[in-house]
Amino acid sequence: MEFSSAADELYGVVPEEFVATRTRLAREAKADGDAALAKRIGGLRRPTLSAWAVNLLARSASDDLGRLLEVGARMREAWGSGSGLGDLEQQRARLVAVLLRRAGDLAGEQGRPLRDQAVREVEDTLQAATVDEDIAAEVRDGRLPQPRSHTGFVPAGFALAPEPAQKPKTEKQPKAEKKAAPAEKKPERPKVTRTSAARAKRAETLARRADEAEQALADKAERADTAKRAADDASAVVGRLRHELERATAERDSAARRAERAEQARTRAEEAAREARKAAEEAHRAAERDAAHG
């Protein structure tokens, strides 16, 4: 077993089967004598529903996903060279929409429909993959344990989502527009960013705790399986000993019956011998009497 093939199999199952599959693969690696591989497999984290949906795209919609990641690479190249994006933004939006529909269809086919929050997380992950090369590699591999988002600097013209439309200016309200101008600086944005980062960190912490709980559950399940196998082995030994005891008891009873019959036969033989001896003695006395009178 290789780690890559094990991970591919593991992240290809539905989330509810992840822990059982991980336990089985780790046990197989341990049975093969590769404790390091077993530990590495045991450390893999169960994916969230949205991450699982993105992993589905890597397996079942790799062509469209590859085109999106290629568009992202071209956008990053354009950003680095300072050239214009052309129609790359439109291509990205079109491909993201196609992949979102495909993710919903794939998840629904397996009985795990995506709710609004999961759809947003899938979209955030796809968008982030066009900006961050590392996230793009993770998405392409199809082994995401949780959704991704890009929180770093994004240059102008490379926004992950369209900016809200600005209200048109009118000549009737020049003073109001001047007063509103400072608000356009949006001083509250850093707070929103920090809040989003805090939420993301809390989500990551909760996901880690869930993974730890699942790992503990898997460990306990493995210990329970080991104990059950030991109990089954002990039961087999008990069964074998009980069978041997029953056979020995039957042999003892049979021997006892044979001994009883032999004792009865001996008693009858002794009685017959006494009768024969008595008859012989009587015949001898009779012969003596006859000789005396003769």
Automatic annotation (TrEMBL):
Q: Locate the region Disordered.
A: 139-294
Q: Composition bias, kind Basic and acidic residues: at what positions? A: 166-191, 201-232, 241-294
What is this protein called in UniProt? Transposase
